[in-house]
Amino acid sequence: MSRPSETGRLDQLIGEARTGRPRAIGRLISLVENQAPELPALMATLAPDTGRARVIGLTGAPGVGKSTTVAALVTELRQRGQRVAVLAVDPSSPFSGGALLGDRVRMQQHALDDGVFIRSMATRGHLGGLAVAAPQAIRVLDAAGFDLVLVETVGVGQSEVEVAEQVDVTLVLLAPGMGDGVQAAKAGVLEIGDVFVVNKADRDGAHAVVRELRNMVALTQRTPADWKPPVVSIVAVDGTGIIELLAELDRFFAQAAASGLTARRRLARARREVESLVLARLRAAVPTQGRDGLDALATAVANGRLDAYTAADRLLVSTPSGSTTA
Amino acid sequence: MSRPSETGRLDQLIGEARTGRPRAIGRLISLVENQAPELPALMATLAPDTGRARVIGLTGAPGVGKSTTVAALVTELRQRGQRVAVLAVDPSSPFSGGALLGDRVRMQQHALDDGVFIRSMATRGHLGGLAVAAPQAIRVLDAAGFDLVLVETVGVGQSEVEVAEQVDVTLVLLAPGMGDGVQAAKAGVLEIGDVFVVNKADRDGAHAVVRELRNMVALTQRTPADWKPPVVSIVAVDGTGIIELLAELDRFFAQAAASGLTARRRLARARREVESLVLARLRAAVPTQGRDGLDALATAVANGRLDAYTAADRLLVSTPSGSTTA
């Protein structure tokens, strides 16, 4: 248990975050990032205040204009009086912390606006990884009263798919002149996009990208089948098409509320989060030392003295039960 | 336990695989792919016969010439009388089974050679995923007496890193004209390469790629620090440079044996494999149904009635201990 003074400090941070104070919100997200011991208390306190924010994922290859698009969306949403949080995650790289916010020069116009919160987050090495860290950070922002949470990720391989699992709706961003045909074809991006956005629509080749994308989307099997992902053309740098994009998002949320899709996605997200926490705790209970610990058994497997199944059996016998670790 | 007739059938398959019969080897790898109930018995039988094969990972972006390079390596190794297995894996896509062997026309010259075994393997959805399936398939090929096992993967995002964890040495393949500068810069490929190979070295821009790569490799922090990854130029389509590439591999294996690197990597691999099996079994023991099952608790979390930590605690209490599931 936390000491009373620590609990008081946490309560104060939570109170300040609820009034939208950026420093308090940032401190709470740092607790998420650092797997702080206060996390269970924090999440238990925040739980009743969550579920209101729309959580929007934005993904796309480097160079398509993600930061510019986020900035344009934020500008329009602020004019409508909405409070917006931007969370940038890079779950794919085990090596670098990522400079995802590096070129976020365009976001500086929002730096002094308390209705906008911008934060990058490292999730690698986190207990349970992105499946735990992203929902926790989203809950902090949700409880802090943001109407929208934009989760931005770099577009490499598996990371889009992982981020799509954490959000209510996924925007896939493309641009003309980024290589051979529609880059979305790789890595299953066609399957995860709820709305496709072609940025730099004033450039040569934009029409071809839109046309090709529409054809590919029409051919892609999707669940649920009742939503046909639209393809929206924008020029993020001057705001062209942003109003139309937000209208498509509204249309998505209305239909997803009626069909129960948003509720189903949120349930699946909660399920993965709980399961990840349980697995992380079970994993922590696996002994490494001793005659039947992981170190000794792995050595025996590497040397061909034992197979991995027999090693796993022995390790399970020496692992305390769930009830004793809880 | 297996019935006697099934055990007899498995023993017969293992016996035939040891003599190098491709159909028997293929059947054993299918057991791995399908998580067959015979797997623990199979792995226990094979364990003493493993640890001899050199396991070589080969990765690179689509279009750099992976298949052609594999074919050229196989041709030269066969001339030296070595038996070679090729295992193609695509761990990154949750959607398609992958057509990794689709353009393997060049491999057809080896189709009737019993000293060559070629197989693609799906690992998504496998109990424990690639961390379990790849070492198991490699053990089958190792026990079947292949001198080298080439593990080929498509070069997208996280998959190279995952495959690098399964092999003794990682070759990273590049080619000129594949986009902006050295494509390796993305996704941490520089950190995982033990030997860099520039294919299509007769084309314009190949010298620039080699030079740029050498500079980047020199600047990359690596573990262990005592091996400086060489950059080898080849023209896979006519076999140019393949002898030099194999010489660099020999040099790597000699140094890695002396420094203990190969032993350390094999131990880390065994450790991940055992841990993955343990976690998969613990996960299977988590209850989904009932008042304190995963379904009900995830619903409470999604609705904000409960936080994920409290849900995880309750789920752990209702999870049987390791000893009762083993």
UniProtKB/TrEMBL annotation, chains A, B:
CDD domains: MMAA-like. Residues 52-196 form the AAA+ ATPase domain. Transmembrane segments: none annotated. GO terms for molecular function: GTP binding; GTPase activity; kinase activity. InterPro entries: AAA+_ATPase, GTPase/Isobutyryl-CoA_mutase, GTPase_ArgK, P-loop_NTPase. Belongs to the SIMIBI class G3E GTPase family. ArgK/MeaB subfamily. Keywords: Chaperone, GTP-binding, Hydrolase, Kinase, Nucleotide-binding, Transferase. It comes from Microlunatus phosphovorus (strain ATCC 700054 / DSM 10555 / JCM 9379 / NBRC 101784 / NCIMB 13414 / VKM Ac-1990 / NM-1). This is Transport system kinase. SUPFAM superfamilies: P-loop containing nucleoside triphosphate hydrolases. It comes from the Bacteria. PANTHER family: LAO_AO TRANSPORT SYSTEM ATPASE, LYSINE/ARGININE/ORNITHINE TRANSPORT SYSTEM KINASE.
